[in-house]
Write a structure and sequence with these properties.
mainly alpha
Length: 79
């Protein structure tokens, strides 16, 4: 734990020293083009919709499997 804390303190010291020197290299124009923003929004929304769809499909598949097992147990067949 002592080793971790000493390493963390050195890391914070290094980061603060770097932050003071990094202000000299600030870009003049830091705006994003509308095309890049639109591409990001489309990809972000697409990944979110894909994730929700995958969760829905997995849950639907799980329920179908569970119903099939219940039906097999109710009819007296071994799995």
């Amino acid at each position: 734990m002592t080793r971790f804390l000493s390493g963390l303190s050195l890391l914070l010291f290094y980061c603060s020293a770097y932050a003071q020197t990094a202000t000299e290299n600030v870009p003049v124009d830091a705006t994003a083009s509308p095309t890049v923003v639109i591409i990001f929004v489309v990809l972000f929304v697409g990944f979110c919709v894909g994730f929700v769809w995958m969760m829905y499909a997995a849950e639907k598949k799980k329920k179908a499997k569970q119903l099939k097992e219940e039906h097999q147990h109710a009819s007296g067949k071994a799995a």
